[in-house]
Amino acid sequence: MKPLLIIISIFLSLNSFAQSDTITAATAKNYIGKEVVLKGILKGVKPYSDRNGKDILFLDIDESYPNSEIGVTVFPDAVPEVKITKDDVGRTVFISGVVQDYKGKPSLPISEGKQFRFKE
């Protein structure tokens, strides 16, 4: 029974990536409020602790901050599930979610680990 549940959960997570438009960081501004899959190159990872001491990650996609076209934030609940090392910089990533406007710039928050994956 457990293997069946694992297979179903993998299928559902892959399916969630397949149902949305695949976009680039440069086109993200055209998708505010829409569910998408962002495809890009991980250019950098900046760890941060919020005022409560919880870990947050800021991801640079396609360009390094401040030149990046979209802000990607991994929030505390997802940080343990989003496994990124320094060796991952330069790899292609896929991030699913709803593009939001944050201070006039597109933003893609990651609140669950299943929203993030590396190209295999």
Question: What does this molecule look like?
Answer:
The protein has one helix spanning 2-18; strands at residues 21-23, 35-49, 55-61, 71-74, 92-98, 100-102, 105-110, 116-118. The protein contains one helix and eight strands. Strands 1, 2, 3, 4, 5, 6, 7 and 8 form an eight-stranded mixed β-sheet that branches. A hairpin with a 5-residue loop joins strand 2 and strand 3. With 120 residues, it is mainly beta. The protein is globular. The model is unreliable at 3-17 (pLDDT under 50).
Quick gist of this model?
By secondary structure, this protein is mostly beta strands.
Features:
mainly beta, eight-stranded mixed sheet, 1 helix, globular
The shape, in one word, is globular
Q: Strand fraction band?
A: 35-45%
Q: What is the rounded distance between the termini?
A: 27 Å
What fraction, in percent, of the residue positions are helical? 10-25%
Write the layout of secondary structure elements.
Layout: H1 2-18, E1 21-23, E2 35-49, E3 55-61, E4 71-74, E5 92-98, E6 100-102, E7 105-110, E8 116-118
Parallel strand pairs: 1-2, 4-7
Antiparallel strand pairs: 2-3, 2-5, 3-4, 5-8, 6-7
